[in-house]
Structures are given as structure tokens and as C-alpha cells.
From TrEMBL:
Residues 149-244 form the Mandelate racemase/muconate lactonizing enzyme C-terminal domain. It comes from the Bacteria. Pfam families: MR_MLE_C, MR_MLE_N. This is Enolase C-terminal domain-like protein. SMART domains: MR_MLE (SM00922). Transmembrane segments: none annotated.
């Protein structure tokens, strides 16, 4: 089996509403690049990458001279062909590699007639539990805003009823810490039997991170995720706060993982199949974490169904996956895969059982959302449509005003 073609298509898939985060916003849609890797036997493997547009499509097309005639089974050679660690200082191809690796694993599974999880060691679980992913958001087309503690609790109650979540993750860093502490405490009071996570995306100062962390110590926390930036900042928080710390920002490769093992800053490593350059590096990293008694969870970077499938196959094979996975997925209105969005049941999603990744493209949906991308274009992830001219600093001091309800037009 040899690679003969690579096709990349950028799509914009609508979200229920614009989602606010500490560094900007998702402006009412996810822009993703869908990758199709065709082999000489007619099989097509699927990959996915965040962001997109003409530049991403051109970047994937530019990989053809590297990959024409490459055997998808040769995954280690693939890593060095695309993301040689020295060359990557200049070409920064980790996320491109991830999308191609997804597609190659999909091709291998289709060729052998087995699901991707069988190629990764065999599944230990048939479904993967997920946390709710709670965002402050703007209102849009029948979907209410989430800004106040009462609105947040009501939104969480609706998600719990619809999907069965028992773990709730609040994406913070949008409003002043004291206000978000009020929101977090409201969640704890409303759902006393459920577990909580707080993630301000590393924009708090060390002083605010310590203050917030100490203020939540008595709550039913799973972990505090990236309260401040950097391994050294996390070490300061970890030494003085009795809540486990997690990160997806500064342990995203093996060098950083080694540093965290030698001088622990984070107790839980959130493994992202895109950030780490594929599913297989995440499996390797999870093995290191198992050895050194670090927790692991599966991280979300704004997935459609293809990347969600990689997250599910990863979660299926990790013996030390003791935390529910993250997913933005329930925030989407639709998907680009056949059958539409994968369903939650009791807070979990079943691991696909078909060959490869176990999902296939719905060509009509891809065409529809490729056209929507051409109509709307991209958006600046690090800007907020409700705060023109604003940008985040680290640490941030210019938080949004929680008393103001803002209407945005995107």
C-alpha cells in the first residue's frame, strides 16, 4: 500500500453560540481542515487539523513530495520524514504530522479490517467518559448567553440532563477571578455529587493562582488546570495549594514531560492527539506517565468527528486513564461525518468499532461547510468579538466586565 494523493478541505462547522475563553473566543464556528490521504489500493484515510484556510491546504499539498509512494504502515519513518526534530525548528510541522498520522492509521485499519484501537494495543474500555466543557458564551440564534452564576448552573443542568455528565470543567480566565470563583462555587453547590475542574488557560498571575487555588481546596475538585503560565509557575502553585494541577500547555512534548518527571509541576498531563503529533506519541507519553505515577486525561482542541475518533481510540487503550476526557464536541450543531454527531450516553461516547478510525465523511456535509467557510472565512482565535481592540496578556489584568451583557454580530 502506497500513498498516491493528499487532499485538504477547510470547513466551518457552526457552534451553538460563540464561546469565550481567556485568550479570545471561538466566533460561533470551528474552522478545521479535513485531510484525505489516498492509497494506491483505493482506500482513503482521514485526518483533521485545527484552523485552516488556503495556507493549511497549501501546507498539506506541499507534503506530497515527501509522502508520494510512502507506505502508511511505516509510521516511524513518517515521523522523521515530516517532523525531524532538528528540521522542525524551521518547519514546525507537528500538527501536520498529526493529521497525516491519523489518516495513515485509518488506512492501516481499513487494510487489515480492524479498528485503530487494535493497532494501539487493544481496547480496555468500549466507551470513553467525558466531562462537560462549560464556557461563558454570547447568545446566538436561540441559544442563551452564559455569563452569570445562575446562567452557568442552568446551562450545566441542561447538559447533564441531555448527556449524563458527572464531571464539569469550567473554562475561565474571562472575568475577574473573584467573579469566576463565585461561579465555580455555584457549580459546586448545585452539583454536590459531581466533580469539578477549572481552567483559566494560564492567564492568572502567581498571586491570583495561589489565592484561587486555596479558595477552592474544600470543593470536590479533580484538578486545577493551567492556573498560571509555565512549569516554574505551576511548581509554585503546586507547592502551596492542595489541589492536583493539570496542564495541556507546557507538557506537550517529551522534553517537557522529562522536565516534569524530574521536577514535578503538574500531577495530570492532558494528552492531545494534535499537540503531541499523533495518537501514537500520546500512547508513548501515557506509558511514561504510568511509570512515574502521573495522571493522564485526553485533551480537546476543538474537534470534529475525525479527531474525536482519534481521542476515543486513544482513551480506549490507556490503562491509566482515570479522568474523564475533555471535548468541545457537545457545543457543535453538526458534524462532517456520516450519521452526524456521535452520541453521548451516560456521559460517555462509544469507541467506533469499524475498521481504522471507524468514521467516514459525509460528502454533502463537507461540501456544505466548505462553502460556509468560503462565505465566512476564518476568525482570530485570540480576539473577542465583544471586546474590539482587546487582546490578552499573560498574566492578564484586563478581564471582561461580568455585569455587562454584550450582543455580538459575527
Amino acid at each position: 500500500m502506497k500513498i498516491v494523493d493528499i487532499r485538504a478541505t477547510t470547513v466551518a462547522v457552526p457552534l451553538e453560540a460563540p464561546l469565550r475563553h481567556s485568550n479570545g473566543a471561538h466566533w460561533g464556528r470551528f474552522v478545521r481542515t479535513i485531510v484525505e490521504v489516498e492509497a494506491d489500493n483505493g482506500l482513503v484515510g482521514l485526518g483533521e487539523m485545527g484552523g485552516g484556510g488556503e495556507s493549511a491546504e497549501a501546507a498539506f499539498s506541499a507534503l506530497m513530495p515527501y509522502l508520494r509512494g510512502h507506505d502508511p504502515f511505516q509510521l516511524e519513518a513518517l515521523r522523521f520524514k515530516i517532523a525531524n526534530p532538528t528540521a522542525s525548528l524551521y518547519n514546525n510541522r507537528t500538527q501536520l504530522l498529526a493529521a497525516i498520522e491519523f489518516a495513515c492509521i485509518d488506512l492501516i485499519g481499513q487494510q487489515l479490517g480492524v479498528p485503530a484501537s487494535d493497532l494501539l494495543g487493544g481496547r480496555l474500555r468500549d466507551s470513553v467518559p467525558f466531562a462537560s466543557y462549560l464556557f461563558y458564551r454570547y447568545a446566538a440564534e436561540g441559544y442563551s448567553e452564559v455569563r452569570t452564576p445562575d446562567q452557568l448552573v442552568e446551562h450545566t443542568r441542561e447538559l447533564k440532563a441531555a448527556h449524563g455528565f458527572t464531571v464539569h470543567k469550567l473554562k475561565g480566565g474571562v472575568f475577574p477571578p473573584d467573579f469566576e470563583l463565585e461561579c465555580y462555587r455555584a457549580l459546586a453547590a448545585a452539583f454536590p455529587d459531581d466533580r469539578l475542574r477549572y481552567d483559566p488557560n494560564a492567564v492568572l498571575s502567581v498571586a491570583e493562582g495561589l489565592r484561587f487555588g486555596r479558595a477552592i481546596e474544600e470543593l470536590n475538585n479533580e484538578y486545577l488546570e493551567d492556573p498560571v503560565w509555565g512549569l516554574e509557575g505551576l511548581r509554585v502553585i503546586r507547592e502551596q495549594v492542595r489541589v492536583p494541577l493539570a496542564t495541556n500547555t507546557v507538557v506537550v512534548n517529551f522534553e517537557q514531560l522529562a522536565s516534569n518527571v524530574l521536577r514535578r509541576a503538574a500531577d495530570v498531563v492532558l494528552l492531545d492527539t494534535t499537540f503531541w503529533g499523533g495518537i501514537r506519541p500520546c500512547v508513548k507519553a501515557a506509558g511514561v506517565c504510568e511509570t512515574f505515577q502521573l495522571g493522564v486525561a485526553v485533551h480537546s482542541s476543538g474537534e470534529l468527528g475525525i479527531q474525536l475518533a482519534t481521542m476515543l481510540h486513544l482513551g480506549a487503550v490507556l490503562p491509566n486513564l482515570t479522568y474523564a476526557a475533555d471535548a468541545h464536541y457537545h457545543q457543535l450543531r453538526d458534524d462532517v461525518i456520516e450519521g452526524g454527531k456521535l452520541a453521548y450516553a451516560d456521559g460517555a461516547i462509544a469507541v467506533p468499532t469499524g475498521p481504522g478510525l471507524g468514521v467516514r465523511l459525509d460528502k454533502d456535509r463537507v461540501a456544505q461547510y466548505a462553502e460556509l467557510y468560503r462565505e465566512l472565512g476564518g476568525y482570530p482565535y485570540d480576539r473577542d468579538p465583544g471586546r474590539p481592540g482587546w487582546y490578552a496578556q499573560v498574566p492578564n489584568e484586563r478581564f471582561a466586565d461580568p455585569t455587562v451583557s454584550v450582543e455580538v454580530s459575527i
